[in-house]
Design a protein that fits this description.
Layout: E1 9-13, H1 17-29, E2 34-40, H2 49-52, H3 79-86, H4 95-98, H5 113-126, E3 132-138, E4 140-146, E5 151-156, E6 166-168, E7 174-179, E8 181-184, E9 205-206, H6 212-220, E10 227-230, H7 234-245, E11 252-256, H8 289-310, H9 319-327, H10 331-335, H11 340-358, H12 363-373, E12 380-384, E13 386-392, E14 398-404, E15 407-413, E16 415-418, H13 432-439, E17 460-462, E18 468-474, H14 480-487, H15 497-519, H16 523-528, H17 541-559, H18 563-580, H19 594-609, H20 616-622
Parallel strand pairs: 1-2, 1-8, 2-3, 8-18, 9-16, 10-11, 10-16, 11-12
Antiparallel strand pairs: 4-5, 5-7, 6-7, 13-14, 14-15, 17-18
Helix pairs in contact: 1-5, 1-15, 7-12, 8-9, 15-19, 17-18, 17-19
Length: about 625
């Protein structure tokens, strides 16, 4: 309990992938009483979000990456595969998947991920420490304001299973919910495309392909119908693949500004990390767009050639993936040299292309579409150009006007499907909560990229002056801009499953750390001396050994899902820290308290768990997690 006697409360806004993953880690990491409220405005999105919810994902919609990369725990590579093969309830699955044996390189339906996350959340509740509770609440957060304890959040339609620390809210049907820390996991924000303003609500226009109505419409569409899909990214492949598997014979046009098509992963593809030399040519001063793009092409060709020569075993299909991944640590320095407006234009123009060299898709999705794009089939056609307008035509059809390099042309379609189309500029996001946060200066749209909001290295929201805006953090999509400039991840890689895994670990650990420091009376001291978290690399030899052992214990504790193991490791860690007798590397003026030493150890352990310079398998071996069945080992 805190010094005021109230159990600390963390409010997680959004219960999709990012919110659920963060709640799981909070349940694992908390060592003292804690109430975690997992708030979701859409019941069908709980433990799923738009990407994985059952009602909006047909059984033919599979993960674009292999099933073996879908574990919610980066340190436990095969967790999803093991769950799908041995724990999942298959009684209501269709025959094809009910008898399927899932493999690391194979496909898996996206819709089963909701059951997986729900099961892992329930497991985390069962294995949480005494006094740590989870409340799954329905309701929409509309506003958040600072208060003495943290934040007061106005929630509309809050379900009655939250009863404490509430008072009437400022809007109709709202209650003010008090929280010591708020985690924003609000997911993708829908953007209404200007080209479809005249057909919003038209029965032949699908705005959100991941909705029950869209699935029904696609499944019941006459086979000979003509279909236009706006975009050629992976969501377009879902739509086209579903039609083709249903025996669709009519033309399907994929309309793309860039003409980007994704690659098919080789059957035995495994994620890997290879080293490449720093692309020094990209670190030169910015001398204009054409010069910069020319240098990018030169450096890219040199890197690909180098990796091809040194690693002939790498399949040519995934060579670009390896190079793009290897470049990420160098991109922040290169990006820093690009003027802001130029950077935004480059991101707008090349994000899809970058995604295509950085990721492919499994054969289950790609094979059927590639066959249909072959001239001998021709049912699927790639149309180069930008959709300018969609207007009603006769007999319930729609006219699609496309601006291409050599002029404008139009065609009619029985059905038009728009890809999801997200709003990345948080100055324009229409969701009331984000509108309020930006208006009140609690959240600041990302200055360099115009994507997401400003956060610090712990995911804490920053105000317009670059200062922490209070105990409020973000995970997932809102951190897109920060991931680009801090880690060199672009496009969906700024908020995909891999990024969310790291966000969930870092934010949950930071939240627990801050709540514990507050309870122990160290939060003001820690705020004044933010460098207390620093891990000095050259302390006295005796201290270095003790620190390393402490970090190893903390890594194992954070990675453990069993309460008894965590408690045993925590006890050993506490004893090890007490035996140090102080930590001389702490900053001047900071007392050598065991609690602050613990915070230093925790931060290093989190950084090691989130090390993306190695694959998850390599990480597990590197951290000594291969044989941790017993805490005394």
């Amino acid at each position: 309990m805190s010094k005021t006697g109230a159990r600390p409360r963390v409010l997680v806004v959004g219960a999709g992938l990012a919110g659920t993953a963060t709640a799981i880690r909070l349940l694992h990491f908390a060592r003292r009483p804690l109430e975690i409220i997992l708030l979701e405005r859409r019941v069908d999105y709980r433990s799923a979000g738009v990407a994985y919810h059952r009602d909006g994902n047909h059984w033919d919609y599979v993960f674009n990456i292999q099933a073996g990369r879908m574990s919610v725990f980066r340190e436990d590579v095969l967790d999803f595969i093991n769950w799908a093969n041995h724990e999942a309830d298959r009684r209501e699955w269709p025959r094809q998947w009910a008898s399927w044996t899932f493999t690391e390189q194979g496909p898996a339906p996206r819709r089963i991920f909701q059951d997986y996350l729900s099961d892992r959340l329930a497991e985390a509740v069962r294995e949480s420490c005494s006094g740590v509770v989870l409340v799954e609440a329905d309701g929409e957060a509309l506003d958040a304001r600072r208060c003495d304890r943290g934040f007061e959040v106005a929630v509309k339609g809050l379900t009655p299973n939250v009863s404490e620390r509430l008072r009437p809210g400022p809007f109709a049907d709202t209650l003010l919910l008090e929280a010591d820390h708020v985690v924003l996991a609000t997911g993708l924000e829908l953007r209404e495309p200007a080209f479809a303003a005249g057909v919003a609500g038209h029965p032949s226009f699908i705005r959100n392909p991941y909705s029950p109505s869209a699935i029904r419409k696609l499944s019941l569409l006459p086979a000979e119908s003509s279909v236009a899909v706006v975009g050629s990214v992976l969501s377009a492949y879902d739509t086209a693949g579903l039609l083709l598997r249903n025996g669709h014979t009519g033309p399907v046009r994929l309309i793309s500004r860039s003409g980007t098509l994704f690659r098919t992963y080789p059957d035995a593809h495994e994620h890997g990390v290879v080293p490449v030399s720093r692309p020094d040519i990209l670190m030169e001063p910015y001398r204009g767009r054409e010069d910069f793009l020319a240098r990018v092409r030169t450096a890219w060709q040199e890197a690909c050639s180098s990796v091809r020569d040194r690693h002939p075993e790498i399949d040519a299909v995934i060579l670009s993936e390896r190079v793009a991944k290897a470049w990420e640590p160098y991109l922040p320095e290169a990006i820093d040299r690009v003027p802001t407006e130029e950077l935004r234009c480059l991101l707008d123009e090349f994000s899809t292309g970058i995604a295509a060299v950085r990721v492919g898709a499994v054969a289950y999705t790609m094979d059927i579409i590639e066959r249909a794009m072959h001239p001998q089939d021709g049912r699927v056609e790639l149309v180069l150009g930008r959709v300018q307008e969609i207007t009603p035509a006769s007999a319930g059809r729609l006219t699609v006007s496309v601006a291409a390099q050599h002029g404008q042309h139009s065609f009619e379609a029985d059905l038009v499907v728009s890809n999801f189309g997200r709003e990345s500029d948080y100055a324009k996001v229409g969701q009331p909560l984000w509108h309020s946060l930006v208006r009140n200066g609690i959240a600041t749209p990302h200055a360099r990229t115009g994507r997401g909001v400003e956060v610090d290295e712990c995911g804490t929201l920053l105000d317009a002056d670059g200062h922490p805006a209070g105990p409020i953090s973000a995970v997932g999509v809102p951190r897109e801009g920060d991931e680009i400039v801090r880690h060199g991840r672009t496009g969906a890689f700024a908020f995909n499953l891999a990024a969310i895994k790291n966000h969930s670990v870092a934010v949950a650990a930071h939240v627990v750390e801050q709540l514990e420091l507050r309870r122990d009376g160290f939060h003001q001291l820690a705020a004044r001396h933010r460098q207390y978290r620093s891990y000095v690399s050259n302390p006295e030899e005796a201290v270095r050994g003790a620190l390393e052992e402490s970090v190893e214990l903390e890594v194992r504790r954070l990675a453990s899902r069993e309460r008894k193991r965590r408690e045993a490791l925590d006890s050993r860690l506490h004893a090890r820290i007490r035996s140090m007798g102080g930590l001389p590397v702490l900053p001047t003026g900071v007392p050598h308290d065991e609690r602050l030493i613990r915070a230093v150890v925790n931060r290093v352990a989190v950084d090691r768990l989130n090390d993306v310079s190695v694959t998850p398998r390599q990480l597990r071996r590197q951290l000594g997690l291969e044989s941790t069945e017993h805490p005394e080992d």
